[in-house]
Specification:
Blueprint lengths: L10 H18 L11 H11 L5 H15 L4 H14 L12 E7 L15 E7 L4 E7 L7 E10 L4 E5 L6 E9 L2 E6 L3 E7 L2
Antiparallel strand pairs: 1-2, 1-8, 2-3, 3-4, 4-5, 5-6, 6-7, 7-8
Length: 201
């Protein structure tokens, strides 16, 4: 799972799936549309409480790894850790960071949805084929419904952390990958926001 969001490269489709999930959540779980992030100070306090090494960057990396591996990190802590990694970029990606098969784990648009807490309720897997210039995304939605397959064409990597691709005749979509280490990638999607992704193969 070499690095590349969360990250559900398929911004257009991802945005559609995310929008539908939020709409369903609004109906089933009243009050879950409050997606405001906590203050930066409150978020940093959350990281310290969760990890506690005293090193903001190390604490943020540890917390993001926890989020990616066992889905136990609290959403406010994940938001805070992502803010630190995005500002500092201590582990930027390389071209080699994007190999393998990846799973989208967490999205900030779902961070305030009760029960979900930012963790993807459906399974989305990604493959970034930089040599073939293709991004393949597979989305499992609800039981008994067919898997959605999305193909991003003209996939490119600029060497500075930004992946670009197109889906059909839509405008290009981007992933700004600001962290890639230990089989975990953090990226900001032009369509779906902040994502945490982990390599599964």
């Amino acid at each position: 799972m070499a690095a590349e969001h969360t990250l559900a490269a398929i911004d257009v489709c991802e945005a559609m799936v995310l929008k539908r999930w939020l709409l369903l959540s609004t109906v089933l779980l009243p009050g879950c549309t409050c997606l405001l992030a906590p203050s930066l100070n409150a978020r940093r306090r959350g990281i310290i409480a969760a990890s506690g090494t005293g090193d903001d960057i190390l604490d943020a990396i540890n917390l993001i790894n926890k989020c990616a591996r066992d889905r136990s990190a609290k959403p406010d802590d994940v938001v805070a850790a992502l803010a630190v990694l995005r500002a500092e970029r201590p582990r930027p990606p390389t071209r080699e960071s994007f190999g393998g098969v990846w799973e989208l784990v967490w999205n900030d648009k779902l961070a305030k949805v009760p029960v979900v807490n930012g963790y993807m309720p459906n399974r989305e897997t990604l493959v970034w084929d930089l040599d073939g210039r293709v991004l393949d995304l597979r989305v499992e939605t609800l039981p008994f419904l067919p898997e959605v397959e999305i193909r991003g064409e003209n996939l490119s990597y600029d060497g500075g952390g930004v992946l670009k691709y197109t889906v059909g005749d839509k405008p290009p979509s981007t992933w700004d990958v600001f962290h890639a280490a230990d089989g975990v990638v953090c990226a900001e999607s032009s369509a779906t926001g902040l994502n945490v992704i982990r390599r599964i193969d």
